Amino acid sequence: MLMGEYLHIMDEKGRVNIPSRLREELGDNFVVTRGLDNCLFIYPSNEWTALEKKLKSLSSSRAEARAFLRLFFSGAAEVELDRQGRALIPPPLREHASLQKEVIFIGVSNRAELWSKDKWEEYSREAGKSFEEVAEKMEDFPF
Predict the structure, then answer these.
(1) Alpha-carbon distance values, 19 to 9, 49, 78, 128 (Å)
(2) Helix spans in the chain (H)
(3) Comparing C-alpha atoms, which of 109, 85, 113, 70 is closest to residue 29?
(4) pLDDT for 51-73, tens place per residue?
(5) Cα torsion for 9, 26, 96, 66, to the nearest 10°?
(6) Is the pTM of this model over 0.85?
(7) Distance (Å, whole) CA 44 – CA 112
(8) Helices (H) and strands (E) in the chain, counts
């Protein structure tokens, strides 16, 4: 399971070390794509395959589904770690997530997310205000 929060530095070429705890789950090859809320989603290969199967079931006759699939898959890139455990994040994905020097990796169960440090702090601060309220509204919350 992917979990935790990790601050890392991205170099000027767009390379970033993958946190060792996340690397264990992601492996040496994984898929990075546009995420929601101005972050990137990072999927281990097996999770990407499972997600791809689910997304194939979306109706291509619906404009919203076509638009989502186009943006989601066109932004996807297979990434391989180099010998130092670094991943090269393609420029369009860096631009989508406004990634600069300081970045935050977070584990979110079956995927990791990559955020600019500033965007993550802003999101976390705002989402934290309603964390308990949202938990109370969720049916079948496990705790």
Answers:
(1) 11, 23, 18, 24
(2) 20-26, 45-56, 63-74, 91-96, 117-129, 131-137
(3) 85
(4) 999 999 988 899 999 999 999 99
(5) 180
(6) yes
(7) 9
(8) 6, 8
What are the residue boundaries of the structural domains of the chain, listed by start?
2-137
The pair of structure tokens assigned to 7 is 């601050």
| pLDDT tens, position by position, 87-104 | 999 999 999 999 999 999
Measuring CA to CA, which residue among 59, 58, 44, 52 is closest to residue 73? 52
CA angle 35, 37, 42 (to 5 degrees): 25
106, two tokens: 């977070």
Could you please state the CATH topology (level 3) that the domain comprising 2-137 is classified under: Chemotaxis protein chec (3.40.1550)
